[in-house]
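Let us practice reading a record.
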Amino acid sequence: MNAVQDARPQYLLALDQLEKLFATITPADLDRPTPCPEFTLRQLLNHVVGGVHRLAYMGEGGRAEDILPGIVDPSDEGWPAALGRARARVAAAWADDAKLGRPTFAPWGEVPGGAAVGGYVMEAVTHTWDIATSLGNGFVLDDGLAHTALGVAQAVLPAEGRGEGVPFGAVRPVAEDADVHTRLAAWLGRTA
């Protein structure tokens, strides 16, 4: 995770982007399918907001395995506020620089806190792509964040050895001139 030593600024930027995208979602969108075949859009939003809370819990000293990445669904119009509450919690939980070097129990094992935050940059940016793809509303994604997330993904998720217990499919082929969002999605086994 050397590419992103203090990923908190990128993570907060990823949450900024996610908040803007959440603001475009209407109640009529919530039952749409997503590139994550196990999730409708409503279920994916729940997973995303729950994941932000899970990272906050880790920053507060908890172990990821102790809680599920999910929340009690808010009202159909309540998703932006739910994300805002999670964002405030995670920002406070990781405000202390010393936490970046502290052993942290992430879903993938014990890592320094900075590595946990970096992994969640990848998570937030990737799920932002999933949501934007599901909505198909022309939301413009941040290329810089996608480059950061792709760097993290390539560093921590080699193409080989994926299978049982790894929540990402095989790397998908993409055109040489594919944009960075498509390359990130393909590295994580997604198809549009």
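A brief commentary: The first strand starts at residue 103 and ends at 106.
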